[in-house]
């Protein structure tokens, strides 16, 4: 039971299921890699499970372009609307619970209870961040009591186009933990999943596609992160990069290249799978890593 | 300074504006210009209040110490040497960092209420010695005494007083997490607001329980040395504030020192980039406050006379040597001629000269190198085909001065519209629609400041929302306050100084 057919119950034993093609999610569409390269996804026993598109540098650039196009519309929606969309993402993952549980079992070797726990934590984390969309600006911003007759206030705004390098070997929880803070802030995101578990990342792309996230606001790539990292860090239209548990060499290279356009680099240290599931792996202060503060002045008087 | 006629320097292309009509208007307006009618009597501020020492030294572990090759310090208004400093090599930097490290434990463990009082004392003593420091700053930096007296000094003191109040309230600053200090902060500051930048750096760092090693700019080291003296007298324990003098080499040694936990840099984007590269992959926290190319956007429904004052304040405050200067004027086409006429008339009233004169509006450029950079950009602007208007004034015979300059007929691709000049040079462009204004304003690598002038509130809010800049001044410009966060988007850097947000770069939240 290691091929990628879901819900085979009730099918006659001689029927060949139609296998899913796992594609990148870019600009609201599911695309094969322009490179034609594929990642082989094996199951936990080493047997073939699926071939997944392997994102190339060009795919990364396309995703960044799609994110830039989407940024204006996504970031200027009302915070309430962004919140509604992320709540819907939680609904969509809940609807795909069986699929994710099965994938975590067959690809990561989790027993059923552990897989159920992980998916529950994932859904709850998405739900939690969804609620932050229309609240974090009140926590992080404020009205400033200055000493002259001006109205002066500070709001947190999304940084722009953000590339998120998801933690390796961290299952579904790693993906949403990397994505949600930047997404809740209103950034247009490119989520890069490493080559160990591409199927789960691309399955998440399908959940995103059905949750009213506008095209391009989230793009999901599966590829070899260490190959894509330098190109993301060099790209002059990326405003910030979130690096989750990449290790010292990657973090150094990332920081050096990111200086090309003074990218914000948010580095999150490596954690174990249990630690990624832990409540300490979610925080409004992670949202803060992906915002800019704008302070406005206006005279008060008649 | 007798002739305030506006000098028109017209390049090959003929001017597109109606020269006769404008000249007629200006003749009419000229009756309002004091400068044409009589000379101002000199009104020099006395320098008796300050004795500039022959030499200023590093301040390490609570003591003034030498070490390093001497570097000359000049008065920009005369180009004469007024003092000297030693340039700290790696050994001196090492001593300073070690002193800060040794002091960190006791300082961070000190009851926060006591740290608060020490900061409060610094603020009070700055107020007490305000006139002395204002004169010293003007001698060292070249900015008008009216600015050091009315802006730099009050704001520097207020910054210490503001953060004094935070020191024992940090637990309430960020809900749900507990804050702790980082350790040793390496701080590198520029020459345009020497004392104020030192205050912006030192006050929040100390309030949060960190210790600091500060490197002032090599052209403006004097006020920081007096601040060191004040720190000692205010009760700052030895080693909590250390100051090392020197140029970029000293700065590099400081920010790459393995014993630091935090770098806060204010200066050029290029140096900021180098620092970001240097710190890549380390645990050293970084905040950068870098360059800017602020757009001052004037709509046709603005109060135009107020807008003109805002434009003047935006680009000629501190000789335009301000990272958040409104160095681009975007004016709606329908009022462009009116605004430019008013601006030229207002330009003609500016008094350029002795920074110690209380009537001076525009003082000296900080260094010969910066003067050359400004002159280069003005040559570039002319070569690119922009049209230059410059205040016709007699610049002092000695010292580093540059006449306030306006470029019209500027294209978005011109270097004077894209690159930070850091001088009294304004690039003017026109626009027709709010969309176009947003497009032009956001179309540089920077994102520090912007100004919007309109009497329509909803338009000001809409523009404020769409401008990608860390500070947006609506119907005002170049306002500062310790409670107001300051910092940029994009290549203008990251992190904020001032306000509650200014605490974040100096705290670890758990």
From TrEMBL, chain A:
It is an enzyme of class 1 (oxidoreductase). The keyword Kinase does not apply. Pfam families: Aldedh. Its EC number is 1.2.1.8. The keyword Oxidoreductase applies. Residues 40-266 form the Aldehyde dehydrogenase domain. GO terms for molecular function: betaine-aldehyde dehydrogenase (NAD+) activity. InterPro entries: Ald_DH/histidinol_DH (IPR016161), Ald_DH_N (IPR016162), Aldehyde_DH_dom (IPR015590). Keywords: Oxidoreductase. This is NAD/NADP-dependent betaine aldehyde dehydrogenase. It comes from Rohdeia mirabilis.
UniProtKB/TrEMBL annotation, chain B:
Pfam families: Aldedh. GO terms for molecular function: aldehyde dehydrogenase (NAD+) activity. Gene3D superfamilies: Aldehyde Dehydrogenase, Chain A, domain 1, Aldehyde Dehydrogenase, Chain A, domain 2. It comes from the Bacteria. Residues 1-21 are annotated as: Disordered. Signal peptide: none annotated. Residues 69-509 form the Aldehyde dehydrogenase domain. Its EC number is 1.2.1.3. Keywords: Oxidoreductase. The keyword Oxidoreductase applies. This is Aldehyde dehydrogenase AldA.
């Amino acid at each position: 039971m290691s091929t990628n057919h879901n819900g085979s119950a009730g099918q006659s034993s001689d029927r060949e299921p139609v296998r899913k093609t796992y594609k990148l999610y870019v600009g609201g569409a599911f695309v094969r890699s322009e490179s034609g390269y594929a990642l082989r996804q094996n199951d936990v026993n080493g047997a073939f499970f699926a071939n997944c598109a392997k994102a190339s540098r060009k795919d990364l650039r396309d995703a960044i372009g799609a994110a830039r196009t989407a940024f204006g519309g996504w970031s200027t929606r009302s915070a309430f609307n962004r919140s509604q969309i992320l709540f819907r993402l939680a609904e969509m993952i809940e609807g795909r619970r069986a699929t994710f549980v099965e994938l975590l079992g067959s690809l990561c070797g989790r027993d059923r209870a552990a897989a159920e726990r992980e998916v529950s934590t994932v859904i709850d984390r998405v739900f939690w961040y969804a609620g932050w969309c229309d609240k974090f600006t009140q926590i992080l911003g404020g009205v400033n009591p200055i000493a002259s007759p001006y109205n002066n206030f500070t709001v947190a705004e999304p940084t722009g186009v953000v590339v998120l390098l998801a933690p390796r070997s961290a299952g579904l929880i790693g993906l949403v933990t990397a994505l949600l803070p930047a997404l809740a802030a209103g950034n247009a995101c490119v989520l890069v999943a490493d080559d160990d578990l591409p199927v789960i990342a691309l399955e998440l792309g399908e959940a995103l596609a059905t949750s009213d996230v506008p095209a391009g606001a989230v793009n999901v790539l599966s590829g070899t992160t260490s190959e894509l990292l330098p190109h993301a860090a060099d790209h002059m239209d990326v405003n910030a990069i979130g690096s989750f548990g990449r290790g010292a060499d990657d973090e150094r290279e990332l920081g050096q290249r990111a200086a090309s356009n003074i990218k914000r680099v948010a580095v999150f240290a490596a954690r174990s799978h249990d630690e990624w599931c832990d409540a300490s792996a979610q925080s409004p202060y992670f949202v803060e890593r992906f915002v800019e503060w704008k302070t406005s002045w206006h005279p008060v008087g008649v | 300074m007798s002739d305030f006629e506006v000098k028109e320097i017209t390049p090959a292309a003929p001017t597109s504006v109606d020269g006769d009509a404008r000249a007629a208007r200006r003749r009419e307006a000229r009756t309002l210009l004091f400068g044409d009618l009589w000379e101002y009597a000199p009104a020099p501020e006395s320098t008796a209040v300050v004795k500039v020492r022959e030499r200023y030294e590093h301040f390490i572990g609570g003591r003034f110490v030498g070490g390093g090759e001497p570097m000359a310090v000049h008065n920009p208004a005369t180009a004469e040497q007024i003092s000297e400093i030693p340039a700290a090599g790696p050994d001196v930097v090492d001593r300073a960092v070690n002193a800060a490290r040794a002091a960190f434990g006791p300082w961070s463990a000190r009851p926060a209420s006591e740290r608060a009082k020490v900061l409060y004392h610094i603020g009070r003593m700055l107020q007490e010695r305000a006139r002395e420091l204002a004169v010293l700053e003007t001698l060292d930096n070249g900015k008008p005494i009216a600015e050091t007296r009315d802006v730099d000094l009050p704001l520097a003191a207020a910054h210490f007083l503001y953060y004094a109040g935070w020191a024992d309230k940090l637990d309430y600053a960020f809900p749900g997490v507990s804050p702790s200090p980082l350790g040793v902060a390496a701080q590198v500051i520029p020459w345009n607001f020497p004392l104020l930048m030192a205050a912006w750096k030192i006050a929040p760092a100390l309030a949060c329980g960190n210790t600091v090693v500060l490197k002032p700019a090599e052209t403006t080291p004097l006020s920081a040395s007096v601040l060191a003296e004040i720190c000692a007298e205010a009760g700052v324990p030895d080693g909590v504030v250390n100051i090392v003098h020197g140029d970029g080499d000293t700065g590099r040694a400081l920010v790459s020192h393995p014993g630091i936990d935090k770098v806060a840099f204010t200066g050029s984007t290029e140096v900021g980039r180098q620092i970001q590269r240097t710190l890549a992959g380390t645990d050293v926290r970084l905040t950068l406050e870098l360059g800017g190319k602020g757009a001052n956007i004037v709509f046709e429904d603005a109060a135009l006379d107020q807008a003109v004052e805002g434009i003047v304040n935006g680009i000629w405050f501190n000789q335009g040597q301000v990272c958040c200067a409104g160095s681009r004027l975007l004016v709606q086409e329908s009022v462009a001629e009116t605004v430019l006429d008013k601006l030229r008339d207002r330009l003609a009233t500016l008094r350029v000269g002795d920074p110690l004169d209380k009537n001076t509006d525009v003082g000296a450029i900080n260094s010969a190198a910066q003067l050359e950079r400004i002159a280069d950009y003005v040559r570039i602007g002319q070569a690119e085909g922009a049209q230059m208007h410059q205040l016709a004034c007699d610049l002092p015979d000695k010292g580093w001065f540059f006449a306030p300059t306006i470029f019209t007929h500027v294209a978005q691709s011109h270097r004077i519209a894209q690159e930070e000049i850091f001088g009294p040079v304004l690039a003017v462009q026109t626009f027709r629609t709010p969309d176009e204004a947003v497009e032009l304003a956001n179309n540089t690598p920077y994102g520090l400041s912007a100004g919007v002038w309109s009497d329509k509130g909803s338009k000001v809010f809409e523009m404020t929302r769409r401008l990608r800049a860390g500070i947006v001044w609506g119907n005002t410009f170049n306002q500062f306050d310790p409670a107001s966060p300051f910092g940029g988007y994009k290549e203008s850097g990251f992190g904020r100084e001032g306000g509650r947000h200014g605490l974040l770069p100096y705290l670890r939240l758990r």
